[in-house]
Amino acid sequence: MERKWIDNIKIVEPYIPGEQPKDENIIKLNTNECPYPPSPLVNDAIKNFDYGNLRLYPSINCDRLKSIISENYNVSKDMIFLGNGSDEVLALCFMTFFNSDKPVLFPDITYSFYDVWCKLYNIKYEKIPVSDNFEIISKDYFKENGGIVIANPNAPTGLYLEFEEIEEIVKNNEKSIVIIDEAYIDFGGESAVSLVNKYNNLVVVHTFSKSRALAGIRVGFAILNSELKSYLEAVKNSFNSYTLNSLSITAAEKSMSDLEYFQKCREKIISTRNRTINILNSIGFKTLNSKSNFVFTTCQNQKASYLYEYLKSKKIIVRFFDKPRINNYLRITIGTDYQMDKLFEELKNCL
Amino acid sequence: MERKWIDNIKIVEPYIPGEQPKDENIIKLNTNECPYPPSPLVNDAIKNFDYGNLRLYPSINCDRLKSIISENYNVSKDMIFLGNGSDEVLALCFMTFFNSDKPVLFPDITYSFYDVWCKLYNIKYEKIPVSDNFEIISKDYFKENGGIVIANPNAPTGLYLEFEEIEEIVKNNEKSIVIIDEAYIDFGGESAVSLVNKYNNLVVVHTFSKSRALAGIRVGFAILNSELKSYLEAVKNSFNSYTLNSLSITAAEKSMSDLEYFQKCREKIISTRNRTINILNSIGFKTLNSKSNFVFTTCQNQKASYLYEYLKSKKIIVRFFDKPRINNYLRITIGTDYQMDKLFEELKNCL
After folding, report:
1. Are B311 and B346 in contact (CB under 8 A)?
2. Mean per-residue pLDDT for B281-294?
3. Mutation site, A218, A244, A269, interface B, largest B CB count within 10 A
4. For residue A131, which phi and psi values (nearest 5 degrees)?
5. How many structural domains does chain A have?
6. Which residues neighbour A104 within 8 Å (Cβ) at sequence distance 6 or greater?
7. B338 and B282 share a domain?
8. A128: nearest Cα among A102, A158, A148, A105
9. Is there a contact between B55 and A34 if contact means CB atoms under 8 Å apart?
10. Are B273 and B221 found together in one domain?
11. Does B121 share its domain with B147?
12. Contact B54/A117, CB-based, under 8 Å?
């Protein structure tokens, strides 16, 4: 059939997420999910959910969820913006806040969705090289720009940029919105949330997918001043009024209110991460100093692509990025101690 | 605090959805929700859901859900695009398919999100007036355009445009993508889905929110040829990889597979609707010939705005649009027979 409409179509190259294999025997260390289940309160809430209410639209404002987040983060409710995963939150932030002729700045090695969003919306951007040690250099961001986005800890490196350095970037860019994507902050480092009341150009983005073990519910949120939030809310309500569903809202409420479980869970992951770094380094790897729930590591005696394929053949999936500067590294999600022991065993067999 | 960044912000007027009152004693006839609960299979699926799996990202492709939809609609799986409510599906369709210098066409009286999306993306548009009887005139759409979107049955009128007229619009616009938004088609009329294999410029959009009583899960879908679907999928994956959550996917699967419950439910609503039209007309209203789960009606002896406020004071909420041409009409969702009897009683008291 002829395609006479083809000129009207937007044709883009999408972001490609990590593999989602169906085989349940696979040890899945490739998408930075939590190896532990979410808070048991989530289970109770789902089991007790009155399914008849699903006939109704969800709560528009998610007041209860916002109240719980507001207490946890010590910010007012009107500074909280909720979205369908932190990816949607970020996508809407890019659409709302990055409308300048000057380029948006972000590191050359970082979450690979940032340039995808820029391309989708025709936003100019400039990738700022990280150092040879993969560190973000804050003063490189002290120049004219149309916005800044920094993942902290950064992905896929896991490196944390000190709180003071983040503050310097925010302070030196009062003409732009600075987004700090803190998807992994709960695994180390200090959140920039406490700076939101001090700087009106700062947006901090969090997710339920990592430290709260709820990647399956698709809930993320931004903390930002109420004026910026109102612009973001208006764009969101011009795109989709109800981005969160009733079941996920309930699950998120319960998860966010179970602080004890959350602490226990992240402590276990931090402890396994530190053990992982030591063991990897003892068997010939050089591993970056991760503050996240994954490690970024390179082997001195074997190519990363080879290790990736070898592990895959042993039903262990990690992440390999075939990209300049990082194509000899593996990103390995922190699993349970049992899963990591299996990984170490296979790596030793291979080397 | 100074706002030196203000020029970089996109400032828009959002779509305003119907009220969502919290008072459970209210008879809520304002947002076209289903008065009956979803299929009981949905309840079983939620109760039996293994909450531990929520730690994982949802299925990327939703294969099982697509298979069930594919069987129900007799189309191949690669013609199905899923989104976070039909609003997200439509929002992404506008972004993907409407990139022309020519205006997108839609009726002047229709779903009020269409012009909101055009404004959000800076898409040119032209509103084509419906007739004095609120009918869409198909030949008015036989002219140069950058795309067409028609709600069928239309909202808030509930009027159905005959299948043959829809086909004429699609056939006479081979240079544009024609979107038929069939949110209400299950309550009357024939779906245009059967035309998707015949015309490669047609996109048909459906939702779980109305006839499947699942507004709370936020799932909608489009049926379109696989090439168009691949462009839409790429844009979606450039915006948000995982727009559907695991619980909603499961609920949608169960709902879509319970054909018997679905039929029973829509028959009840159709029967209550026809009774509603008769009763309203017998007490001084003029009601359009609705093929949807709501009626659009005007009272010969009393202003719509007055009736709206009166009903609200009696804890019955209907929808009133303070807009040209329709500001003497009420849009009333079909509830249970009990709820409608309460409505008739209050209207009789008022008149």
Report:
1. yes
2. 98
3. A218
4. -70, 175
5. 2
6. A94, A98, A118, A123, A124, A125, A126, A145, A146, A147, A148, A149
7. yes
8. A105
9. yes
10. no
11. yes
12. no
CATH number of the domain encompassing residue A215: 3.40.640.10
State the residue for tokens 């700076």. Answer: A195
Q: Say if the Cβ atoms of B234 and A20 lie within 8 Å.
A: no
pLDDT in tens, B333-342: 999 999 999 9
Q: What is the CATH number of the domain that holds A336?
A: 3.90.1150.10
- Say whether pTM exceeds 0.90: yes
- Beta bridge partners, B203, equal B179, B224
Q: How far is A302 from chain B (nearest CA, A)?
A: 30
Q: Which residues contact B330 (CB under 8 A, 6 or more apart)?
A: B296, B297, B298, B299, B304, B307, B308, B318, B319, B320
Query: Which is it for strands A147-151 and A104-107: parallel, antiparallel or unpaired?
Result: parallel
Provide the ipTM. 0.96
* A273 touches B at CB < 8 Å: no
| Binary contact (B58, A12; C-beta < 8 A) | no
Cα B174 from Cα B188, distance rounded (Å): 27
Q: Are residues B33 and B48 in the same domain?
A: no
Separation in Å, CA of A59 to nearest CA in chain B: 7
A287 interfacial to chain B (CB closer than 8 Å): no
Q: What is the pLDDT of residue B18?
A: 76
SS3 A351: coil
How far is it, in rounded angstroms, from Cα A102 to Cα B264?
A: 58
Contact of A60 with chain B, judged by CB distance below 8 Å, is answered with yes
Query: Is B15 at the interface with chain A, CB within 8 A?
Result: yes
A231 reaches B (C-beta below 8 A) = yes
Among candidates B2, B42, B53 on the partner chain, residue whose Cβ is nearest the Cβ of A51 = B42
How many contacts, defined by CB atoms under 8 Å, are there between A and B? 286
Q: Would an 8 Å CB–CB cutoff place A148 in contact with chain B?
A: no
Considering chain B, what percentage of its residues have pLDDT values greater than 90?
A: 93
Q: State whether residue B6 sits within 8 Å of chain A by CB.
A: no
Instruction: Note whether A14 contacts B235, CB cutoff 8 Å.
Output: yes
The predicted structure's pLDDT at residue B204: 98
Of A18-22, A333-337, B342-346, which range is least confident?
A18-22
CB contact under 8 A, A5 and B52: no
B15 and A43 within 8 Å at the Cβ level: the answer is: no
Cβ contacts (< 8 Å) between A244 and chain B: which residues? 218
| Domain boundary pick from B234, B258, B282 | B258
From chain B, pick out residues whose CB is under 8 angstroms from the CB of A96: 9-10
User: Distance from A41 to chain B by nearest Cα, in Å?
Assistant: 10
Looking at the structure, tell me whether residues B45 and B70 fall in a common domain: yes
Tell me, yes or no, whether B1 lies in a domain. Answer: no
Determine, yes or no, domain membership for A156: yes
Q: Does one domain contain both B335 and B322?
A: yes
Is there a contact between A261 and A242 (Cβ–Cβ < 8 Å)?
Answer: no
Q: Which residue, chain included where needed, has tokens 């082997």? A: A299
User: Residue A11 is part of which domain span?
Assistant: 6-38+260-350
pLDDT at B22: 78
pLDDT band at A306 (very low <50, low <70, confident <90, very high): very high
Bridge partners (DSSP) listed for residue B331: B296, B319
CA B325 to chain centre: 21
pLDDT of residue A22: 78
Residue with tokens 């995963």: A85
Mind giving me the DSSP string for A194-230? GGTTT-TTEEEEEESSSTTS-GGG--EEEEE-HHHHH
Cβ–Cβ below 8 Å for A5 and B174: yes
Each residue's pLDDT tens digit, B142-196: 999 999 999 999 999 999 999 999 999 999 999 999 999 999 999 999 999 999 9
**Per the structure block, which two tokens stand in for A134?**
């993969």
d(CA B297, CA B3): 47
Determine the Cα–Cα distance for residues A152 and A166; give it in Å rounded to an integer.
9
The answer on A316 and A292 residing in a single domain is: yes
